[in-house]
Amino acid sequence: MIPAFSAIIPIQRALAKTLSESLNTARSTLSGTIVVIESKAVKVVPFVLFGLLCVLFGVTVYIILPQALLNENPGVILNIFFLILGGLILGLTLLAANLRGFIEIIVTYLLLFWERKSMRTLIKKNLVAHKHTNKLTSIIYALTLGCVIFLCVALNLVIKTTEGGGLSSSWTQADIIVESNSSTRGTINQTENIDNVLSQYADDIKDFAYVTSSL
CA angle, corner 9, sides to 147 and 40, nearest 5? Predict the structure, then answer.
């Protein structure tokens, strides 16, 4: 979906131009200086919505998460952790977008240290002229990379959980669990006692199984 959404803005810019502006190749469409005139009637609704969203996120983390931990509700805990990871990805994306200009200067000096100063200055001015396009590219790249890393970590976690807890997930739902940590001789005696219990309450026991200790 990210490449599909990223193609919307260039299409809107292309459709917003007239035919004469699109065919004019003598005049550059890029401008290093952009003047924005804002009116005094500032829209407060987006700021209020963002503030309410941040308050709701803080209430979820500081109130609902401890209650879910005390109540041992894994569904709510996993949902809150998912929200935290999503907020972390968005926060790192905004950080990458804000540090884009500083990173561009560092990369310019690292990769073009052998060039003349005038060439590096020209490249930096060119990057400033393309800052809006570079900002969108950095946001899309950061979101894509963050989603890929999140999916890889989640996949590895699921694989490890499946490999390590395949047996435990089946017997933890039993009504009664009997564990033995004694020696081999004691384990045999414990097994005999369990057999006596099974024979004594054969009519009441629906099903049973033996689970060995993890190697």
Answer: 105
Angle of helix 117-129 relative to helix 100-111, nearest 10 degrees, comes to: 150
Calpha distance 96→143 (Å, rounded): 10
Least confident of 13-22, 32-41, 77-86: 32-41
Cβ neighbours around 128 below 10 Å, total:
14
| Contact status, residue 9 vs residue 136, Cβ threshold 8 Å | yes
What's the pLDDT tens digit per position in 165-194? 544 555 556 667 766 655 544 444 556 667
pLDDT tens-digit profile of 105-139?
888 888 888 888 888 888 888 888 788 778 888 88
- The Cα–Cα gap between 150 and 171 comes to 31
Q: How far apart are CA 68 and CA 88, in angstroms?
A: 21
**Worst-scoring range by mean pLDDT, 150-164, 165-179, 200-214?**
165-179
Q: What share of the chain is helix, strand, coil (3-state, %, to 5)?
A: 70, 0, 30
Q: What is the pLDDT of residue 185?
A: 44
Query: What distance in Å separates the CA atoms of residue 32 and residue 128, rounded to the nearest whole number?
Result: 6
